[in-house]
Specification:
With about 300 residues, the chain is an alpha/beta fold. The chain contains ten helices and 14 strands.
Length: about 300
């Protein structure tokens, strides 16, 4: 069994293909044709070090992601997320490849947001606001630019120097506050490790769409109660009510899963203000890994 490192994975994944694949993966998940238990999590050190094991069977492939979430690594040379994915043929259990999962996690998270944004963003969305300046801010800027034509991109981070660096690297506008970023924006990305809300619902213009992908613990949140009173879409109802602090702490009503939106089972009004809360699913990782394996000629 071969191992594909991050460089090899990055050379084989393409945004348009990945966005389409995530859409199909979430339709299958919401239809119940994917075999996937809840992730198993292990706390090594509260607030600092966590492990997760995420298996799934999706059609002709099955796999497992072993992921480490280390907030303690923030600001160091080591990434806050590391992962390895092992992929097998479903029919025979033949191992196909092991591969770097850090980049897959980064890219599939943004690709899912892009797929949801394609369906929920207001028509003619022009202004993108990004809260956070890490890897998810970077990947969301790339992925969302595949589905919307933004004329203005604003970035804010709790660390001003990080926001300044991100703005310089990507040619976008750094703003001084989260409110300044969000006010008037059509699409917002919340991609931080905040423990308490950084985005207030009162700042959202009617019809705006928010992709909330950070604060991935049941007792952490990025959005306040007012924001979570809007139309809430999740990747998984089962996972969101157990893992997503934004949903749990606001006692938010879930309108739909993303797969139900893609499948036409649930259709929100485009003029509604929408919140997509992502926790990340094993089926997304396995489907992304399948794309890599296909590109490598292993399938």
């Amino acid at each position: 069994m071969i191992y594909l490192d991050e460089k090899a994975v990055g050379a084989l994944l393409r945004w348009d293909d990945l966005i389409a694949a995530m859409e199909h993966a979430l339709v299958a998940y919401s239809r119940g044709t994917t075999l996937q238990p809840m992730r198993m999590g292990l706390t090594i050190e509260e607030q600092r070090r966590y492990l997760g094991i995420m298996p799934a069977v999706v059609g002709d492939v099955m796999g497992l992601k072993f992921v480490a979430f280390y907030p303690v690594n923030a600001g160091t040379e080591f990434p806050t997320h590391n992962a390895t994915i092992v992929l097998y043929r479903t029919a025979t259990a033949e191992p196909l490849a092991a591969m770097d999962g850090r980049l897959i996690t980064e890219m599939r998270t943004a690709a899912v947001s892009a797929a949801v944004t394609k369906y929920l963003a207001p028509e003619g969305a022009q202004v993108l606001a990004i809260l956070g300046s890490g890897v998810q801010a970077h990947s969301h800027l790339q992925a969302l630019s595949r589905v919307c034509e933004f004329s203005e991109v604003r970035v804010w981070s709790r660390t001003a120097a990080h926001a300044e660096r991100f703005a310089h690297e990507h040619g976008v506008t750094r703003v001084e506050s989260a409110e300044a970023a969000v006010r008037g924006a059509d699409v917002i990305v919340a991609a931080t490790a905040a423990r308490d809300p950084i985005l207030k619902g009162v700042w959202l213009k009617p019809g705006a769409h928010v992709n909330a992908v950070g604060s991935s613990r049941p007792d952490w949140r990025e959005l306040d109660d007012d924001a979570m009173r809007n139309v809430v879409v999740v990747d998984s109802r089962e996972a969101a009510v157990l893992e997503a602090g934004d949903v749990i702490l606001a006692d938010a009503e879930i309108y739909a899963e993303a797969g139900e939106i893609f499948d036409g089972v649930r259709v929100p009004v485009r003029s509604s203000t929408t919140i997509f809360k992502s926790v990340g699913l094993a089926c997304e990782d396995v489907v992304a890994a399948r794309l890599v394996a296909e590109g490598a000629g292993l399938l």
